[in-house]
Amino acid sequence: MTFTFQAEDFKRDSSKKLSHHHLFPLAMEEDMKTVDTKKAGRILDQEKENTRSICLLEQKRKVVSSNIDVPPARKSSEELDMDKVTAAMVLTSLSTSPLVRSPPVRPNEGLSGSWKEAGCVPSSTSSSGYWSWSAPSDQSNPSTPSPPLSADSFKPFRSPAQPDDGIDEAEAGNLLFDEPIPRKRKNSMKVMFKCLWKNCGKVLSTAAGIQKHIRTIHLGRVGDSDYSDGEEDFYYTEIKLNTDSVAEGLSSLAPVSPSQSLASPPTFPIPDSSRTETPYARTDTKLMTPLSRSAPTTLYLVHTDHAYQATPPVTIPGSAKFTPNGSSFSISWQSPPVTFTGIPVSPTHHHHPAGPGEQRQHAHTVLSSPPRGAVSLRKPRGEGKKCRKVYGMENRDMWCTACRWKKACQRFVD
DNA sequence: GATGCCGGGGT
DNA sequence: ACCCCGGCATC
């Protein structure tokens, strides 16, 4: 059993975790072979995997039956049952503490892995990667918000009806955030669930609640039946309020107590994820990606330090005025992959934050037919102080990324 | 001269 | 994609 798990596990991770080789000499051999055969072609590989799976199952059977008297014929179904039970346990533990890296997950993986390879369910994680939160997909379709779900935030509230997914998510979490994460998750984490449906910012404290909300309100599932095809999962996200890192990052910024957002569900509860320079807080920011919000009348400067590389920032003008200075300025979070098409901004005043290409071109189309032939349609330099001016050359590491790269400043947009 | 940032190159 | 920098426009 144990051996099987290790070998299987190793096979799955072989492409990534080369550093673990010294732990499993046997597996290393296997792995090397796998690497070699990769060049020869996937078919061979597949064949090999299957054979190995069979061999391992055989081996497993021997080991188990030497200890326990089990009829071999029933073996597979029993294992499946145990699979489910273990998966349920794992999911339960996951739902209570999001980052429990519970060892039972791995053996489970091993087992399900062999079943999968035998042709049951293809594992999306091992082959094609993981969920991406910058999913550029259907922005055009208003009925599918397609929220940016990181594997990390996705994991804890997967419905137990899908044990396989739960396992995969767990693995994805491990793969994605292997190194620095453990200190992020502490018991100071508050978890809420926010509906991502357009113009609905409902926040509930339980996954079941939000699922029900989405089912009934948005998906129009009539009758309060508990039937769920898991679709709701895509329409809500988990809001983690890490009092530690947030407070850490916020120490010099606007004082917004996390509990405040807990106390006021109907309002928009996000603005505590402010700009920080700490990677941990930045990760948190990703977790708290709101997809849509009921249009606020105040100014929201939506950007991140890395907005230059990431999705373009969205600026919603309004009555309130933020005056950026060194210590406190815009509320920022990872801007969701939604294009705010209906914002009534007079084109002449659309001196927007220059984002990457797409946004720039958009500006050109909005601006009334720019003079032809002018090759360098350079936008006039903004008068606001930029990172360079504010922080100075000596504090270059405090600049926003764009400034550091001599790009249009993303922190102090004009 | 200082600053902002586009365009382009390196990895 | 990320990062850096030459060089130009603007202040």
TrEMBL record:
One of its GO terms (biological process) is regulation of transcription by RNA polymerase II. InterPro entries: CR1/CR2-DNA-binding_regulator, Znf_C2H2_type. Keywords: DNA-binding, Metal-binding, Nucleus, Transcription, Transcription regulation, Zinc, Zinc-finger. PROSITE patterns: ZINC_FINGER_C2H2_1 (PS00028), ZINC_FINGER_C2H2_2 (PS50157). GO terms for molecular function: DNA-binding transcription factor activity; RNA polymerase II cis-regulatory region sequence-specific DNA binding; zinc ion binding. Residues 193-223 form the C2H2-type domain. Its main location: nucleus. Residues 98-168, 255-280, 343-384 are annotated as: Disordered. It comes from the Eukaryota. It is found in: Nucleus. SMART domains: c-clamp (SM01366). GO terms for cellular component: nucleus. Residues 123-137 have a biased composition (Low complexity). This is Zinc finger protein 704 isoform X1. It comes from Octodon degus. The gene is Znf704.
